[in-house]
């Protein structure tokens, strides 16, 4: 199911659960761009903004495109965890990453097999509030329909 894996990854790219992330420096260090940080400094980055940067993702960065994660044979193509930071990187990488993907795939298959989902008002824009966690601004009204034959 490489396409499902790609679709979930593309969703996490555009709509990260953690929109703003911060780290505390345990020792003096120099960031890749040459900026010096000192022990105790807090360094924050914005995954929400990073995943929309043309410099990182190309001109189609705003487009939901699961195919960007597939190679020419249709197999899932991993990106550096320092580019796609949904599960952190290096020594901080999430030990539950594979379990999380497995859970998302199981729930996706079960829900999409049984139901069809539609926005109640497809013309109403969905806006987000990138706080610590990415939140929908207001509410999201969705209608569900049973799929026939299930």
The gross shape turns out to be globular
Main-sheet strand order equals: 1-4
Q: Percentage of helical residues?
A: 25-40%
| Structure annotation, total helices | 4
Quote the distance from N terminus to C terminus: 21 Å
The major pleated sheet works out as: 2 strands, antiparallel
Q: Tell me the radius of gyration.
A: 18 Å
Pattern of helices and strands: HEEEEHHHEEEE
Briefly note the structural class of the backbone: alpha+beta
Runs with pLDDT <50, length 5+? none
How many E strands?
8
Mean pLDDT: 91
As a percent range, the share of strand residues is 15-25%
List the helices and strands and how they pair.
Elements: H1 2-14, E1 21-24, E2 29-30, E3 36-37, E4 42-45, H2 47-50, H3 54-57, H4 97-114, E5 115-119, E6 128-130, E7 134-136, E8 142-146
Antiparallel strand pairs: 1-4, 2-3, 5-8, 6-7
Cofactor: heme
Family: Belongs to the cytochrome P450 family.
GO molecular function: heme binding; iron ion binding; monooxygenase activity; oxidoreductase activity, acting on paired donors, with incorporation or reduction of molecular oxygen
At a glance:
The protein has 150 residues and is an alpha+beta fold. The protein is built from 4 helices and 8 strands. Belongs to the cytochrome P450 family.
């Amino acid at each position: 199911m490489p396409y499902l894996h790609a679709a979930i990854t593309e969703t996490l790219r555009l709509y990260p659960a953690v929109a703003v992330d911060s780290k505390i420096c345990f020792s003096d260090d120099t960031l890749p761009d040459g900026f010096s940080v000192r022990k105790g400094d807090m360094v924050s980055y914005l995954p929400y903004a990073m995943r929309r940067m043309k410099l990182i993702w190309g001109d189609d960065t705003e487009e939901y495109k699961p195919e960007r994660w597939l190679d020419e044979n249709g197999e899932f193509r991993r990106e550096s965890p320092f580019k796609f930071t949904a599960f952190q990187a290096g020594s901080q990488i999430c030990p539950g990453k594979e379990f999380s993907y497995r859970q998302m795939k199981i729930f996706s298959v079960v829900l999409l097999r049984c139901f069809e989902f539609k926005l109640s008002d497809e013309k109403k824009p969905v806006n987000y509030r990138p706080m610590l966690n990415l939140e929908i601004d207001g509410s999201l009204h969705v209608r569900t329909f049973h799929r026939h034959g299930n």
